[in-house]
Amino acid sequence: MTLLDLWLSRSLPMCLLLQSLVLMALCFPSASMCPKGCICQRDPHLHGINVTCSQSRLKEIPPSLPVDTVLLRLDHNQIGAVPDQTFHGLRLLRELNLSYNAVETLGEAAFSGIEATLQVLDLSHNRITSVHKDAFARLKARVIVDDNPWHCDCALQQAISGMAHNHDAAARVLCRSSEVRDQEGRPFLAVDTDLCNLAKRTTDYAMLVTMFGWFAMVISYVVYYVRQNQEDARRHLEYLKSLPSKPKKPDEADDISTVV
User: Fold this and answer.
1) Could you tell me where this protein is found in the cell (predicted)?
2) In whole angstroms, what is the distance from residue 101 CA to residue 126 CA?
């Protein structure tokens, strides 16, 4: 056996091992990339990773998600908030499931960075009462918002108007509470009042009432001040009148007689 044959016989198994390790690294994400309590599997059709964190008792969104995540399941947890820029690095994300959590509100940049690629966003069965008016403005995804205790106000009306391509989702928004009487329990699209102008009118009315209150207080103070001064002047005049008259001196009387 020549030296070349000996070298090949020893190098070939090592090459095969390295090739296998490379294939495994490509097909299966490393454990360090996958958040604790989640399962990460590479999706050969979508050329990315499916991350499943369902029923993991999570109280917040995992901070270290694989950058090539295409499907993210965070349903049936205890997540209470979606901080701004949370998904900013997930530029391949197509589906995001946040259903059955405890989310109460959504900020302007809650879904920043995934607007172009996201196709499905499930926010059903949460505790969402209010959202920023631009929370869904740039999303092209199908948004599911069923079963949330919505407070129907100006911001929600603006957010819904930005979901023209999600008419079905908007139709499922029910008002748990509202700025308008007798709207509780009714679909939000049934509200035919401009809530933004209503809020403005309410603010203007409150300002008018406040200004009138200040004006009335100033007038009351002026009236009180004038009356108080009049009373003091009257008392002083009565005091002067009550003083005894000063008697004339005898010399002054003689001088007057002489002159006469």
Assistant:
1) Membrane
2) 5
What's the mean per-residue pLDDT of the chain? 78
- Each residue's pLDDT tens digit, 203-225: 544 555 666 677 677 777 777 77
To 5 degrees, how large is the angle CA 52–CA 44–CA 15?
Answer: 110
pTM value is 0.64
**Which residue has tokens 């499905």?**
120
Handedness of CA 97, 160, 151, 81 (dihedral sign): positive
Domain 31-193 has CATH 3.40.50.300: no
In Å, what is the CA distance from 83 to each residue of 52, 86, 166? 20, 6, 23
How far is residue 156's CA from residue 102's CA, in Å, rounded to a whole number?
A: 19
pLDDT score, position 8: 47
Closest by Cα among 103, 96, 35 to 70: 96
- Tokens representing 15 are 């090459």
* 193: Cβ contacts below 8 Å, ≥ 6 apart: 180
Question: Strands 48-52 and 39-43, how do they pair?
Answer: antiparallel
CB atoms within 10 A of CB 227: 10
Q: How far apart are CA 63 and CA 74, in angstroms?
A: 13
How is the chain split into domains, by residue range? 31-193, 194-230
Per-residue pLDDT for 28 more than 60? no
Q: Which residue has the tokens 């100006």?
A: 154
